[in-house]
Specification:
The complex is a heterodimer of chains A (about 280) and B (about 300). Chain A is an all-alpha fold. Chain A has one domain: MetI-like (MetI-like fold), CATH 1.10.3720.10. Chain A contains 12 helices and no strands. Chain B is an all-alpha fold and about 300 residues long. The chains are: A mainly alpha (about 280), B mainly alpha (about 300).
């Protein structure tokens, strides 16, 4: 697009406003990380000491050596990986069916998967807690993974269906003429082509599950506590130890930020394809 | 519904899609549909968790109680203000960001990546960082505002009813505007440059270009994003839960939070379920409009 504005105009109409927005977006995040490497004396200083003379890793040491946080990280990793595998595992065949077959009830079922993604969590979480308690799945990995599949499955089905829709049907048919069975088509033709979409969807589920708080809090106890639940408990427990709290926050936020940045371009195009297509 | 596979004669083939759907349906049935049915059942009973042997059927009693519950009406009012403020401001800031990012400049892709970061963060981190910045004693917000002379002495942002609500709204705007920014940006990039060139030849001002070309072209994207976000914000309670837990007093209660607290802290699962169902019913219209738009894709 042509731009007839002078450099000065561009500075005030483009660079400065956008810089402010970027600062707003990054500020709280950077501030959390900065706090986590300050000494307690600097954290408690008033007026605020923005750039201290010394930086320290003492809060990270304290966090990993004196609290259960290392174990919580592992729990979150297991749960997010499990939610990812379960979500993709059951959704890939479902998405293939929605994309390649026209059958009775298709519209209804697809709409159902869309609608349940919009259900308020409070509508599901209360009875899910009762259910998990009755069948003894409270405070187990599988219990929380199942809880997270409430959003992982519908989301994956919609994402993967649109990815598979983008694969030409000729590919399937050529393979069938060569004598491939349906499962072979899915495994040998669809799976390799849809892999980037599968990875994107998987990473999004991983991030969402890692970040999730309400299900993890309701369905976990001592054994499988996730990082988000642990952090919230720390806030109650170590109320003014901001160094420790922000160190935990940084360790939770860093991996998901990196993953998110990795897939953001493809993710956005996947998420918005429905909205943008005219 | 005229695809070739529909007319295939072999019955095995007709069964195949259902077999493929079976695992997903079983999981959904167990963790979504069954619980929702349970919620409906519980809402018709006086179900209190620690009295499992005494669950009397009370019909619409919980809903009747709800209509006379001041906290319900208060929470509903907060929810409406909450949704319009959060979604409205997220949208405005997102639109401005998208319009800026849609121009050509050297640090554009860097800016785009950085702006998206708040979206990736969990609600407990949002709660943590903002609670820390709002801190009364050594919070950075008070420090900055005092340095700029906007306030004389520190403000206890989260401890006063008026400022607590607004403080959480600001935190939520921070988290949600990147979604609008990238969605609208994706829409902007589909507008062909020829339209703008034609407008330039007709001597259109920049405001006219925005008003008559840009906005109409992305109206559809905006509508979808607004609907999706309204549903999401209306349902979300975790950031409020971790920042204030509804307080001080009832000043940051919203409808989903009230339903959750009734069940979680009050153990009144029956009444909490009725509140959750009320929230769902109120949202149904928005969900319906969204689903109808999204379902246009189904027949491709």
């Amino acid at each position: 697009m042509r731009d007839s504005r002078s450099p000065l105009q561009r500075l005030f109409e483009l660079h400065l406003p956008l810089l402010l927005i970027v600062l707003f977006a990054l500020g709280p995040y950077v501030w959390m990380m900065m706090t986590s490497i300050k000494t307690n004396a600097d954290i408690g200083a008033w007026p605020v000491r923005y750039w201290p003379d010394v930086f320290t890793t003492e809060h990270y040491h304290a966090l990993l050596e004196r609290t259960s946080f290392g174990g919580n990280l592992l729990n979150s990793l297991i749960i997010a990986t499990g939610a990812c595998l379960l979500g993709l595992g059951v959704s890939l065949p479902a998405a293939y069916a929605f994309s390649r077959y026209r059958f009775r009830g298709r519209r209804l079922l697809m709409t159902q998967f869309l609608v349940i993604n919009m259900f308020p969590i409070v509508l599901i979480i209360i009875p899910l807690f009762v259910l998990m308690r009755n069948i003894g799945l409270l405070d187990t990995f599988i219990g929380i993974i199942l809880g997270h599949s409430t959003f992982a499955v519908p989301f994956s089905i919609w994402m993967l269906t649109s990815y598979i829709n983008a694969i030409p049907k000729d590919l399937d048919e050529a393979a069938r003429i060569d004598g491939a069975t349906t499962l072979e088509v899915l495994r040998l033709i669809i799976l390799p082509v849809v892999m980037p979409g599968l990875v994107t969807t998987g990473i999004y589920i991983f991030v969402t599950s890692w970040n999730e708080y309400l299900f993890a809090m309701m369905l976990s106890g001592q054994n499988v506590r996730t990082v988000t639940v642990a952090l919230q408990l720390f806030i109650g427990e170590f109320s003014v130890q901001w160094g420790l709290l922000t160190a935990a926050g940084t360790l939770i936020a860093l991996p998901v930020t990196l993953l998110f940045l990795l897939v953001q371009k493809r993710l956005v195009s996947g998420l918005t394809s429905g909205a943008v297509k005219s | 519904m005229t695809a070739a596979s529909d007319t295939a004669p072999a019955p095995r083939l007709v069964l195949t899609p259902y077999l493929f759907l079976l695992p997903a349906m079983l999981v959904t049935l167990a963790v979504v549909l069954w619980p929702v049915a349970e919620t409906v059942w519980m809402s018709l009973h006086n179900f209190i968790l620690f009295k499992p042997r005494n669950v009397p059927f009370i019909g619409l009693g919980n809903f009747w109680r709800l209509l006379h519950d001041e906290v319900f009406w208060l929470s509903l009012g907060h929810s409406l203000v909450w949704i319009s403020l959060v979604v409205g401001l997220q949208f405005l800031l997102g639109l401005v960001t998208a319009l800026l990012l849609n121009q050509t400049f050297w640090w554009r892709s860097l800016a785009r990546s950085l702006v998206i970061i708040p979206w990736a963060l969990p609600s407990v981190i949002i709660g943590l960082t903002w609670t820390w910045m709002y801190d009364f004693n050594v919070g950075v917000l008070n420090d900055v505002l005092i340095r700029f002379g906007l306030i004389d002495k520190p403000v206890a942002w989260l401890a006063q009813p008026d400022s607590a609500f607004i403080s959480i709204v600001v935190a939520l705007i921070w988290q949600g505007f990147p979604f609008f920014a990238v969605t609208i940006l994706a829409g902007l990039q589909t507008i062909s440059a020829e339209l703008y060139e034609a407008a330039d030849m007709d001597g259109a001002t920049r405001f006219q270009r925005l008003r008559f070309i840009t906005l109409p072209a992305i109206a559809d994207v905006i509508a979808t994003a607004l609907l999706l976000r309204t549903i999401w914000v209306a349902n979300s309670l975790d950031v409020i839960l971790v920042m204030t837990g509804g307080g001080p007093g009832y000043s940051t209660y919203t409808l989903p939070l009230y339903a959750f607290l009734k069940a979680y802290s009050g153990m009144e699962f029956g009444y909490g379920s009725a509140l959750a169902i009320m929230l769902t019913l109120l949202l149904l219209l928005v969900v319906f409009i969204y689903v109808r738009r999204a379902a246009r894709e189904l027949d491709q």
